[in-house]
Amino acid sequence: MRATVGDRLVVEGRKVDDGRREGEVVEVHGQDGAPPYLVRWSDGHEGLTFPGPDAHVVPRQR
Q1: From CA 58, how far away is CA 15, in angstroms rounded?
Q2: What is the end-to-end Cα distance of the chain in Å, rounded?
Q3: Residue 23 in contact with residue 9, Cβ under 8 Å?
Q4: Ramachandran area for residue 31 (φ above 0: left; ψ -120 to 50: alpha; else beta)
Q5: DSSP assignment letter at 3
Q6: Are 21 and 8 within 8 A, CB to CB?
Q7: pTM to 2 decimals?
Q8: What residues contact residue 25 under an 8 Å CB cut-off, 6+ apart?
Q9: Which string of DSSP letters, residue by residue, matches 5-57?
Q10: In what residue span(s) does the DUF1918 domain sit (predicted)?
Q11: Which residue has the higher pLDDT, 28 or 17?
């Protein structure tokens, strides 16, 4: 997985009742765009995130 600042991180729910989480990549801490990422989630919280297999990156529109 690779991301740049401004990309969107989308984490799909693992169960039927789990909702999708979306956030903006604020910082990239890995080499060459690799995780971990500091993400500002849609609810306003920020956190250092190590995305799992249920996540994908949506590149920002340039």
Answers
A1: 22
A2: 19
A3: yes
A4: beta
A5: -
A6: no
A7: 0.88
A8: 3, 4, 5, 6, 7, 8, 9, 37, 38, 39, 57
A9: TT-EEEE--SSTTPPPEEEEEEEE-SGGGPSPEEEEETTS-EEEE---TTEEE
A10: 1-57
A11: 28
**Is-contact 57 4, C-beta < 8 A?**
no
What are the structure tokens assigned to 11, written together? 């984490």
pLDDT in tens, 4-25: 999 999 999 777 777 889 999 9
**CA-CA distance, 14 to 38, in Å (whole number)?**
21
Q: At residue 47, what is the residue type?
A: G
Residues in the chain: 62
